[in-house]
C-alpha cells in the first residue's frame, strides 16, 4: 500500500497516458495513480483499463460522463482519495509538462521538510519553461504576479498545477465551496490553504510544454482566472469583516 496517490485528469490523452503511467510506476518511491477521465473520445480510459491488470491495486480509473472541467475532476479525485487512507495527494497533468521524477521532490517537501502544500514552481528561481512561445510565457508569468499582488500570497507560481497536498489540508478545505472549474481552480486552492495558515513551499521545477496531444488552454479559462481572483479576494475580506 502506498501513502501517496497521483490524480491525473484526462481528456484525449491517448498519446501520453501509458508512457506517463509507466514512468510513475518506475520511480524508486512507490505511488498509486488515479486517472479521472471525462469520457475521452480517443479511448484514453480504455487504455488505462488495459493497464490495470498489469498494475493491479495501484492504478485506478474514475470515468465521468463528459468534459466537466479541470477543477471538478480534481475535486472528484480528492474525494476518492480522502475516502481511502492516502496521506499525500498530488495533482499532475497528463501531458509530460510535469516531470514524473519531480514527484519525489514534492513528496519529500511535505513528508520530510514540514510543508503542508508543495508546489512544483516554474517561477521560484526565474522562468523555467521550455517550448512555450514568449507570449505565453509572459502571459503566465504576469498572471502569477497579478494573483500574488491581489491575494497577498507569497507564492511565485500561483497558477501551478503540479502540487502535493497533505491529507489534512484537503480535509479542512470545504470542497463544496470551491467556485472555479478551470485553471483558476489552482489559484483558489492555494488561496484557501493560505487563508488557513497552512505551510506552503515552492519546489523549483522545469516545465516542458506538451509535445503530443492538444492544449486545453482557452480565452474563457484566462478570463476566469483574471476576474475570478478579484472576486475571490473581495469575498475573503467580506468574510473576515463579518466574523
TrEMBL record:
CDD domains per UniProt = DPM1_like (cd06442)
Q: Where is the Glycosyltransferase 2-like domain?
A: 6-173
The name this protein carries in UniProt is Polyprenol monophosphomannose synthase
Q: Which family does it belong to?
A: Belongs to the glycosyltransferase 2 family.
Record's SUPFAM superfamilies? Answer: Nucleotide-diphospho-sugar transferases
Any one GO CC term of this protein is:
membrane
- GO process annotations (BP): glycolipid biosynthetic process
State the source organism's domain of life. Bacteria
